[in-house]
Amino acid sequence: MTQPTAGALLELSGVRKRYGQQVAVDDVSLALREGEFLTFLGPSGSGKTTTLMMVAGLQQPDAGSIILRGKAVDRLPPYKRDIGMVFQHYALFPHMTVRRNIAFPLEMRGTPKAEASRLVDEALAMVGLPHHGERLPRELSGGQQQRVALARAMVYRPALLLMDEPLGALDKSLREQLQLEIKRLHRERRMSVLYVTHDQSEALTMSDRIAVFNDGRIEQIGAPADLYERPASRFVAGFVGETNFLTGEALGRDGNGARVSLAGVAMPVSDRFLATPGSRVSVAVRPERVRLSTTGEGVPAELVDLIYLGNARRFVLRLAGGAEWTALMQADAAEASEIEPGQTVRVSWQGMHATAFPM
Amino acid sequence: MRGRAPDPRFWLLLPALLVLLVTFVLPVGGLLARAFTQPEPGFQNFALLWERPVYLQVIWNTVMISAAATPVALILGFPVAHAMAHGSPRTRRLLIFLVLIPFWTSLLVRSFATVILLQRRGPLNTLLMNIGVIDTPLPLIYNLTGVLLGAVQTLLPFVIFPLYSSMKRIDPSLMQAALTLGAGPVRAFLRVYLPLSLPGLMTGATLVFISMLGYFVIPALLGGPQETMVAQMIQDQIAQLGSWGVAGAMSFVLLAITAGLLALLHKLVGLKAVAR
């Protein structure tokens, strides 16, 4: 269990929420450090947005506590919590100009007019829209609207910025551009950010830490590299990044680490999980860790397809036993391998790059 | 004179247009024309309206009663429309059903039912006296209260549906955004929700006001002499005095007020460009 964390800006412990019979959030505990960019990643219905809504005060937890800057806020309404929020569909006030949208939170706080006007100018410049103040939201593109929403949520410097799939409604190139911009603002303004997304590559790109949600619980919380290289569960391995899975039988350990029998071949795996010899396990290997050779040890496989990706090649393989895997190789390595579709190859990997999850 | 052949679908509209022409445009046009032609050509009917205080009084009454009913209907209808727009589908269906029920009942039957309910020794007064809220029966009928109570219940659908269609388009996350930005519920409502529901409010208010201007049954059954409205006066002029000219002039004034209001509404809602 998470212990109370000293110096945490936001702390959730034992937070639960149910809708009727449906458990939406089940015993979520976590701490967010000052200045940290923490992302809730998970499929839809995993409880990530509900948890964010409870932090915002737009949903009430059934149990547990939410502490912001050392103060319990779970009974405070949203307007008394020191937060800013960016919504997926921008939620700009359609009847107000961009300026008046951004000035709204300042006005609610009674900021003097001159000061407010200066802060709005600064916020508009910050998001790169210095000349759009007099426009109405509907006169702006989606990306510009989300920048305005960002400026509006940051202009009063809340303790914590909440973002609910803020880029979900934008197309890919705009999304990538805004990802970088949000990162820049986070860095420059030293904002603490709680970010929700179902897009794992977005989470990996942007976050200091990621909390992976599944079925209302946090499966794993850690730095992007931790999640990617050392997933704590089969779910995390499958959800964060691309992963090949193969079912096999645990063989136990020898001098070189743990071994697993896959399609009758003994293969090395990391010894992070100790499975009883003879039990069934699911072995996970990332495509870029898969090695292909025409000779030597490994699981036999047929090369079904070779996909050209420009800077890399994707090998589509059918392993003995029927599982479909992919292997990713940089262009020069792929060309050097001289493997053609239809050919039978051996699939192998280094033990440290394979994880055997108990089933 | 060789225009393009009309869209064949035009012919499908023709029967309805003919019915409207024969039963609406021609007779109403005829009545309005009589204002200027009977008993002799000229503006003497309008001069009469202007000279006799009783006519002006009735026109003034009509406008004031309609103006009083409008805010009452808006305030009562607003929460219903809100629940319809943002409630569960079940709530929405139930409310639409309840709001529509009055349309299935004759206006006359409903008005007489209201008479029974509101009369001096009616169920409402009896109840209030039994629970000790009042000592003597309240004068609920044959006065302005009676007219307003009767009118508002028949007019509610006219505010609820336009409001509902405005509110349905208000993204609920706007209110959430206002709350997270530091606005309490009242300020969030006044600054965000209310302005965005303005088109519905304006349409509802205009519909109520204009329908009320022409009310006949309700002021006749539930009002007293003080609450005589233009429609009753028109009826008296024709049925009892046979003066079609004065009736035509009054209809003309009623129509002018209505047209003026519609023009104003169009200008306001068109210009303000509120919410989408």
Mean pLDDT of chain A: 92
**Greatest interface and its participating residue counts:** A-B, 26 and 22 residues
Counting structural domains of chain A, the number is 2
Which percent bin holds the helix content of chain A? 25-40%
CATH homologous group name of the largest domain in chain A = P-loop containing nucleotide triphosphate hydrolases
Would you count the extended β strands of chain B for me? 0
End-to-end gap of chain A: 24 Å
Question: Can you tag this structure with a few keywords?
Answer:
heterodimer; A: 359 residues; alpha+beta; Rossmann fold; OB fold (Dihydrolipoamide Acetyltransferase, E2P); 2 domains; six-stranded mixed beta sheet; five-stranded antiparallel beta sheet; 9 helices; 20 strands; 25% helix; elongated; B: 276 residues; mainly alpha; MetI-like fold; 13 helices
Structure description:
- The complex is a heterodimer of chains A (359) and B (276).
- Chain A is of the alpha+beta class and 359 residues long.
- Chain A folds into 2 domains: 8-237, Rossmann fold; 242-358, RNA polymerase II/Efflux pump adaptor protein, barrel-sandwich hybrid domain (OB fold (Dihydrolipoamide Acetyltransferase, E2P), Beta Barrel).
- Chain A contains 9 helices and 20 strands.
- Chain A has helices at 48-56, 98-108, 113-126, 142-154, 172-189, 200-206, 224-229, 234-239, 331-337; strands at 8-19, 22-33, 37-41, 63-68, 71-72, 83-86, 160-164, 193-197, 209-214, 217-222, 244-254, 257-262, 265-269, 280-285, 291-293, 299-308, 312-319, 324-330, 344-348, 354-358.
- In chain A, the strands form 4 sheets. Chain A has a 6-stranded mixed beta sheet, sandwiched between helices. Chain A has a 5-stranded antiparallel beta sheet with strand order 13-12-11-14-20.
- In chain A, helix 2 packs across helix 3 and helix 3 packs across helix 4 (142-154).
- In chain A, 42% of the residues are buried.
- The mean pLDDT of chain A is 92.
- Chain B has 276 residues and is mainly alpha-helical.
- Chain B has one domain (43-272): MetI-like fold, CATH 1.10.3720.
- Chain B has 13 helices and no strands.
- The longest helix of chain B has 34 residues, at 53-86.
- Chain B starts with 9 loop residues before the first helix and ends with a helix.
- The model of chain B has no long low-confidence stretch (mean pLDDT 89).
- The interface between A and B is medium-sized, with 26 and 22 residues.
